[in-house]
Amino acid sequence: MTRVRYSSLHVSPVRTAPSGRPGAYHVPVLLPEVETLFVGAANILDCTLGGGGHAAALLDRGMRVTGVDRDPRALAAARERLADPERAGQFRALLGNYADLEGAGLAYSELFDGILLDLGVSSHQFDDLTRGFTFREGAPLDMRMGTDVDLGADELLNTIDEVDLSALLRAYADEPRAARLAREIVRRRDRRPFATADDLVDAIRAVLGPRSGAPEFARIFQAVRIAVNDELAGLERALPKLRDRLTSGGVLAIISYHSGEDRLVKNAFRDWSAACICPPKQMMCTCRGEPLGETLTKKPINATDAEIDVNSRARSARLRAWRRV
Ligand SMILES: C[S@@+](CC[C@H](N)C(=O)[O-])C[C@H]1O[C@@H](n2cnc3c(N)ncnc32)[C@H](O)[C@@H]1O
After folding, report:
1. Residues 45 and 118 both lie in one domain
2. What's the CATH number where 308 sits?
3. Are 115 and 209 part of one and the same domain?
4. What are the φ and ψ backbone dihedral angles of 25, each rounded to 5 degrees?
5. Predicted TM-score of the model (pTM)
6. Which atom belonging to ligand 1 lies closest to the Cα atom of 116?
7. Averaged in consecutive runs of 10 residues, what is the pLDDT profile of the chain (325 residues)?
């Protein structure tokens, strides 16, 4: 069985998109909406560079782009695609986690007119069987986005405490039978450690019934992926740091695909837009008393039916934006 080891992420060649079409690596979601939010910006930080789809469009509009991704293979693919702007000094790519931009090599003092997060995984990461994100038959269980993640999905599922596993499935997958599923996973791994997607799919089927299918598998696999990559805690840590990297008038735009992500973004934007941030029970206001900025999207922007028709991934996308004053 193929198993992506931590170190192999550094050395394996970039698998080109099956069709070889530019953009086939990953079709960027809500692209015109993102371009509109960044009108007038000169200097963009794309925190989730992926295949460079959003970055390419923003470069075409004359903006300078710094791209960050925790996946070395995504970075290599984006560099290959954006080699011309890179040579012209308009584009640079940094390996790292957006929750630790300084660790990725970004100077503390560097500010941006626009910051983009397009969360989750790219189609390429998902489609590459060896990365272990998919529930396709025979696929390994891995799901690590980058070299900064230690435990793969198999190791997580084979070692996690049953109570923690149940909490994870409830919190990230909204799974009503989380406790039963956690117990089933522990029972099965005691007989034989989990190694492939089939092991998890079989456990899900045993608990959710033989008629459970792609939607249930996708939901549970996504929950495991979020835990493996510490995605929600990373986003929560990153949000205030990203806000503080905006120039005055700069826009933070975030596309999320999971209700937990969207909730974090919505609440952060609401808090930063409030005039008073004192605790509700406090009698007198002792805070700065001025909003840090304004939420540009009272409701999240969803993809149009036309976009969803050509890119089903856009179905669950929610775009929110906030401007610093
Ligand atoms: C949905 S894809 C982005 C696609 C990109 N917008 C495009 O148009 O090609 C998400 C990317 O973000 C990266 N990523 C996810 N979480 C990250 C994090 N905490 N730090 C850096 N990169 C991250 C993933 O490795 C993946 O390549």
Report:
1. yes
2. 3.40.50.150
3. no
4. -55, -45
5. 0.91
6. 6
7. 31 30 77 98 98 97 98 97 95 97 97 98 94 96 95 98 98 98 98 98 97 96 98 98 98 98 97 85 79 96 97 96 97
